[in-house]
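Consider this one:
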Amino acid sequence: MRYLNKIVFINSAHIPYAEVKVDGNVHFVGTQGVGKSTVLRALLFFYNADKLKLGIPREKQSFDAFYFPYPNSYIVYEVIRDANAYFILAFKHRGRVAFRFIDCAYRREILMSEQGEVYTEWMHIQQKVDKGVHTSRIIDRYEEYRDIIFGNRHEVQPEFRKYAIAESNKYQNIPRTIQNVFLNTKLDAEFIKNTMISSMTDDEISIDLAYYRSQVSAFEQEYNDVHLWYKTDKYGVVTVRRDADKVEKAYRNLLLITAKIKELISELVYAYQRDEQRLPLLHQELGKLKEEFERINRLISEESGKYNKQKDGKNRELGAVDARLKEIADKRKFYQQSDILSVVSRIEKEDFVKNEIENKKRYKEELTLQHKSITDKYAALTEKLQLELRTIEATCNEKKNLLQEVYNREVARITQQKEERNKEIYAHFDVESQTVDEKIQAANTDLTAAKSKRLIYQNTHLYANELELCKNKIDQLHEQHRKTEIEKEQNRSKINELRHEAEAERQKIEQELQAQPKDLEQKNENLAQQIAKLDELLAQYKGSFYEWLSTHKQGWQQTIGKVVDEQHVLYNNLLHPQLSSQHNASLFGVDVDLSHIERELRTPDDLKAEKQDAEQEIEENKKRIYECTTANQENIQQIENRYAKQIRDLRMAHQTLEANLLQMGQQIKVEQVKMQNWDKRNEEEKQKRLEKIDLQISKLQEQLSTFQQEKEKLRNKRNRELKACEQESASANNAKRKETDCKIEILLQETQEKTTAINNQINQLKIQESNELAGQGVNTTALQQINDKLVALQKELDFINNNRKRYFDYLSFKEEWLPEEDKKKEQKRKLENELALLDEKFRLRSSRLGQQKLQFETKIRDKEAEQTQLEKGLTAVDNFKLSMESTTSIEWTTVKPKTSTDPTDQVLQLLKDSLYDKLGKADALKQNVDRFKSYFSTKNTFAFKTQLNTDDDYMTFAQNLCDFIDHDKIEEYSRRLSNRYGDILQRISKEVGSINSYASEIGKIINDINADFHERNFAGVIKEIALRSQPSSDRLMILLNDMKTFNDEHTYDIGELNLFSSEQQRDDTNRGVTKRLFDFMVCLNENPNRSRLVLSDTFKLQFRIKENDNDTGWIEKISNVGSDGTDILVKAMVNIMLINVFKEKVSRKFGDFTLHCMMDEIGKLHPNNVRGILKFANVRNIYLVNSSPISYAVSDYKYTYLLTKDNKSNTLVKALITMKV
């Protein structure tokens, strides 16, 4: 039994000297202010050594100043330790209270002389202590003092372990409970829970949150960083991988464009040298073409002159034929208008008329034959008149014919003049039209050439050669593209094969190398269990049967040690062994010969050595595990490096192939665009040329039209002059005709008058004859009819005679002129055909020469264009070199030329485009890198550099990213992270399961406390004090329980955890793990100062107090229960029960000990309740130290002390009653 036996005040707290025994219940009585609370606080200080938890008001002196005002102020605590005692000396050292432990019972003379002088110097005190008695160093740390008092063996040096009144590493709630009783502090569940837990075990039952905080602090960063490589958008695209591929492609493209630029520089050097050599030769070729062009122009001019000359001759012949045909037409028209056919018909009846006249005459002669004399007479007269009439008519006809001949001669003269004038007009027209014809011919020639040229342009592709080159290049690119696609697929297959081989080899090595670490881990688990058992045995050694035998039974190893169980007997501290009066060697009355039993007993040192060996073996196994793991990782790394190099080379080749494919596709598009451009350029150029040639044709047509109009004007002028001449001739003819007709009319009138007179005479004669014949009986009527008929016939014969010349003229016209008309028409047709043939021949010759001219024009233009292009290209290259001197370091003289068929300016443009494209690709690389690195923070999991400034920084970043992708590092990170957090989740589950395993023990303690109250309750006013546990409302604990439940439900899934798996069946598991780890991390971050989750966090404790008819219900804090007295009573009872829980636990291991509880102003309690609380504490081996103004229930206390004040205000402590218990 260990307990505080007494407390001694020496010059302390206004107490000169007082010894107070506390080995039982103690009651201090005295009026207010005599020092009852002072004594109780000193007693409390023994247990809590906390000056701030003594209930000293702030306005009063501090503990150090009040209790230790002098250098020789002391408080002595004497402690009984089984059969002997030691005391603790409290004194002031360097301004604060300190302690010394002295291993002997307290004697007054140690600190005071016989004269009552209190020693100040330690050397005087030390001299008074018996030799061989241990005196400790100064203990000035209160925590160390409490560790010594309550036996925290882990923190206390071995020399101090003998001073412990208990033995526990988790005693902290005991002094708190004692001070809570004294201070009547409100009770809360946390404090009670901790007290209960500390009673269960000395080991700290908790989960190290600091460890998990360090493990999962970067979880969000690591998970988010790695998850980005698997996270898909709404289209199912992994954006980070896509952007990483973009960076890789941009990087490859930049390398390719750089190589292309070098190649283009070589081609540009070649093209420049080629054009320099070509330019002089081109000048010579151009000179020859221009000479030939001039020759063709000369031939065209000669051919045009020859044609015009021949055409003019034909045109003149045709004009003469046209004039003759017109004259024939005019004659025909004249005869038609004069009704010549009627005249011809009447003249051709001349014989008939003459016959008719003869017939009529004969008939008349027959009628007048009998009167022939009459008729002869009248006939002679009539004949005479008719002769005169015929003379007149003949004279008239002669004059008329003469007039007609004069008229005909004038007409002939006028006609001749007209023809001469016409010839002059035609000749003048020919002279004037020759120039116009030459212009027309030239225009026609040019128009024909222009139309031929237009037809050539229209049906010819101007850039057929360039187009053919593009087509050939596209065909080549398509073929290369097809071959590259095949090579790319083969390359991809090789990459997949290598990856499968690498994965298979890695898994094989992992399987081979993981076997040994698993065996070692299993050994470590077994050793850890063994160490736990050894720790349990060592923890049970204090107060065990083994310790008792070693102290009280010599040689027990050869007797009882050979037959008893080590764990259940030797190291059991609940057997309470005692020496028996019988000293024989029997075993429960049976004699057994134990000499043949060989058994090695393990001493605590053996256990410690065995534990040390096990721990050393664990460390060696860990080292071997680490070595195996390291070797595993090294071998895997070697495999990965070996395959990664091949895969990297293949990926590089793959990327190159993809870039080449892309470039080929682009080149195909470029060539197609070129073809389109050539087609467009052809159309544009053709359109320009056609527009130009159309404009030329239009101008030529306008010129031709102008020339034709000019010729038409000349022709119209000629026709007008011809018409004027014709009109003038016709007018002259008409005038002559009128003049002749007028003369003939006069002649005819005169003749008619004469004829009429003669005819009248003849008629008169005929009448006379008729009358005379009638007188003679002649038929005058018939005679008259014959005469009339003869007159008519004579008129017809006169008409024939008068128109006979016209008749013969018409016959001459018909016989001579009309046959000539057909010949003239045939001649005209032939002349027109000859002209058409001449035109066709000239057109063909002109077309041939025009085509030749066009060909030479085209060649000259092409050569000039080539010359211009070459000169322009050379100039552009020179300018480019000058402009690039300040921006690049190209050594043009050292560049090796590369053959190229492309024009220099095109190669230069490609180079410029490539340089510009390089800038664009460099910008694209930067943009892609910036976009990619924007996903990651500066402290990202992959150590991607996010601060990039120079181009080299971007290139290095891209290269590193390519290596990252080539080595498939993300899978390594994914696997490592998944394993790591899977292990964390399983460890959490294991630790939560471990800490939750104490729930039953806590429930047992609560049940024991409740049962203990019901069995040993002596305070009648308190009907019930009950406790119960409820599930914890701690958010972190709820989360950890959820994590454990989840882990238990998905044990097999998590065994092969992949946080980034895309397999559907693992999605829920992955999300569950991720969510819980996220929540765990957030919860830890929200509580940065929370380093551990202790057992008290795993449940919630509630109280229920029934005081008479008052029921608090289930509550978590006890602040005020009923009246002041009841409140004090309830809190004291609960605290006493808590102290008892701790005592019983420690007593089982260490042995029994007694504690004190101090209750100030116990007078607030009813005497029955005081008696009840004393019994409540005493049955639990706890002494109560109370104070009140008056004394009552004296028999319930072992000691009753009266405190008073003397005239110097010193407190006097006097023992009134000492009861024997």
User: Anything to note?
Assistant: The chain has 28 helices and 17 strands. The chain has a mean pLDDT of 79.
